[in-house]
Amino acid sequence: MKFHKEGYASLIVVLLFVVITNSVAAYFDVASWLKWVIYFASAFLFITVLQFFRSPIREITQDEQVVLCPADGKVVVIEETEETEYFKDKRLQVSIFMSPINVHSNRNPVSGIVKHFKYHPGKFLVAWHPKSSIDNERTTIVIETLSKTEILVRQIAGALAKRIVWYVEKGRPVVQGEEFGFIKFGSRVDLFLPLNTEINVKIGDKVKGGKTIIGRF
Known about the structure:
This protein is an alpha+beta fold.
């Protein structure tokens, strides 16, 4: 288990807050019960940041015929839908909701070349809201596999998520299972797959990024 690089700034802020708050509580003559409340609250805040930015080391089994899960979380949508930004036709949509307690790094579902990338500023509706995928702050990434199959991955900010991070560029290769981004504090990732993709998960399934097989080509 590692601590994710995106969490260092947050960890420094929390550490400064904890040190200052606890120093003030220890220095001034405050009630004993209030000191313990401050100590427990500080410990809870510190542990929360550590668990949120944890980055587990995972062994990835790469396979050109499968779509690996791009994020830890729960499957909340599996449906045929019209993808209007890039494909402009019908695709199979699979959506994974990431709660604040999940690992929030995002992993490439397939290997290939980034054919399209766009960042969209937007709102911060709750991630399970039907319009979050078109109204919220988000990124759109299209990867073309070696077999010329294109899939679309969309990072979507939620009500708490105020920052989406990505590590991909148009025209650059990506490797299945490796990190392509991070979303802070609750979010969602959508996959848009070819209609003939065999889906291996169902709504409500708990899934792991880079480990769970979402579907097969």
